[in-house]
Design brief:
Blueprint lengths: L3 H11 L1 E7 L4 H14 L6 E5 L2 E8 L2 E8 L4 E6 L3 H8 L4 E4 L11 H7 L16 E4 L8 E8 L4 E8 L2 E8 L3 E3 L1
Antiparallel strand pairs: 1-5, 1-6, 2-5, 3-4, 7-8, 7-11, 8-9, 9-10
Length: 183
C-alpha cells in the first residue's frame, strides 16, 4: 500500500526538466504568467519549478562599478514538470511561448548531464568553514571590500547573512558563500 509521502516522492523523481522557447525578452513575463496559471489550476505537483537562468556580472561605466544580471539563455525558460497532456497544454499555450525544444511537437527532457551543465542544479560548496559570529570580507558586488560579521549560515541555499556597518548603522546583507572570505 502506498501512502501520501511515497506518491509525492515518486512525482518529484518522475518530474524532468524541459526547455520552452519564448519570444525574445519575454522570459520573465512567461515565467510569471506560467507560475500564476499553475497555481490557479492547482498543478503545483505536476509543474514543480520554472526558471530563467541568470548570472551576475560587474559593469563599469564612468569608473562606477555596478552589479547587473543577464540571462544565460535568452529566449528560453526551463520547466521542471511531469509530462502530461494537461501540463503540455498549459506550457505550450502560455502567452509568449513558441514551443518546446525537441523534434516536432514532442518535447524531449534534458538529461541529468545537461541539467548540471546548465547550472540548474545548484552546486553546494563542499566545505564552508565559517560560522555565526566570524568576521568576513566581502569579495564582490556593490559592497566589495566591506567587513562584517556573520549573523546566519544557510547551507541548503549556499547563503550567508552578514551585518556590515554603513553610514553608522548596521545593515544586513544576504550573500553567496563565494562572495565572502574569513579574516
Amino acid at each position: 500500500m502506498m501512502d501520501a509521502t511515497d506518491s509525492v516522492k515518486d512525482k518529484v523523481e518522475e518530474a524532468k526538466w524541459y526547455v520552452a522557447h519564448t519570444y525574445s525578452g519575454h522570459e520573465n513575463k512567461v515565467k510569471t504568467t506560467m507560475e500564476k496559471m499553475v497555481v490557479n489550476r492547482g498543478m503545483e505537483d505536476i509543474i514543480q519549478e520554472i526558471r530563467v537562468p541568470t548570472e551576475e556580472y560587474t559593469d563599469t561605466k564612468n569608473g562606477v562599478e555596478k552589479v547587473k544580471e543577464r540571462k544565460l539563455y535568452p529566449s528560453y525558460v526551463l520547466v521542471k514538470m511531469i509530462m502530461t497532456d494537461e501540463s503540455w497544454y498549459l506550457v505550450r499555450n502560455t502567452r509568449g511561448v513558441t514551443g518546446f525544444v525537441g523534434p516536432g511537437s514532442k518535447p524531449v527532457p534534458l538529461s541529468d548531464e545537461e541539467v548540471k551543465a546548465l547550472g540548474v542544479i545548484d552546486k553546494k560548496p563542499i566545505n564552508f568553514e565559517l560560522e555565526v559570529g566570524d568576521s568576513v570580507k566581502i569579495l564582490m558586488g556593490p559592497f566589495k571590500d566591506f567587513m562584517g560579521n556573520i549573523e546566519n549560515v544557510d547551507f541548503d541555499q549556499g547563503k550567508v547573512k552578514v551585518f556590515i556597518s554603513m553610514f553608522g548603522r548596521d545593515t544586513l546583507l544576504e550573500l553567496d558563500f563565494d562572495q565572502v572570505e574569513g579574516i
